[in-house]
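Re: the 272-residue chain
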Amino acid sequence: MLSVRTRSFGAILSLLLASCAGSLSHGKAKTAEEQYKNAMEDLHDSLYPEALQGFAEIKAKFPYSKYAALADLRSADTHFERGKYVEAIDAYRQFMKLHPTHEEVPYAMFRIGEAYAKQAPEEWFFMPPASEKDQASTRLAISAYQDAIDRYPKAEYAEKARQRLAECKRVLAEHELYVAKFYWHREKWRAAANRAEGVVRDYGGSKLDPEALLLAARAFGRAGDANEARADAQKLLEKYPASSEAADAKKLLAELPPPAAPAPEAAPAQGG
């Protein structure tokens, strides 16, 4: 068997060889295109420090070539691929600032959304559900995706941005419904109702809408606001008559007091 010292030396040697792989596998680049190709190969091979160095050399040696702008963008991609999402967001924004009319600006905007989304809470079987965790990054992702869609609705990445936007909104709808239930269990009726209504108002169109409307109606009913309770229950029946919550909405409507009759108009004063 190999000794611990021998195995350690082998591991260190492997790391050194890997770090040199980029430079050893490339010849001396003479043009910006060759330098860019070499740096891209390093990026694809997950040799991130080498890729960043290669892109930086393009900026230094060929600042007026088209590859200088691409080097800015691919540096951002490198940060993204290595999981440095904050650095990636800053780099994408820097690319957009330096090259506002570049054809890859829509891509950079989309990737900013992706970088925010990557920082959002994930589901793990041994951890609390993502809906119970802070969703600040998800909100920032929504803003970034929406910005990309609004500015470049027909761009190559617009449809992907729409899909990601819908996914993020679903996550926030789940989070808001979780918060509404949190208030419900603590008998904070109006807070529960308002958060449940927010699910439909801000993230409407998800499968959670019927459940949120029923929760809002019940919470308003507990708060003594029959009119608001009735409005949410009726909205549920109108929009989702086939939902599993429809029967409960009908039952709630039957239990609520009838709407108050409008006050009669005062008779006009008689002149003397």
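Residues 4-19, 123-133 have pLDDT under 50 and may be disordered.
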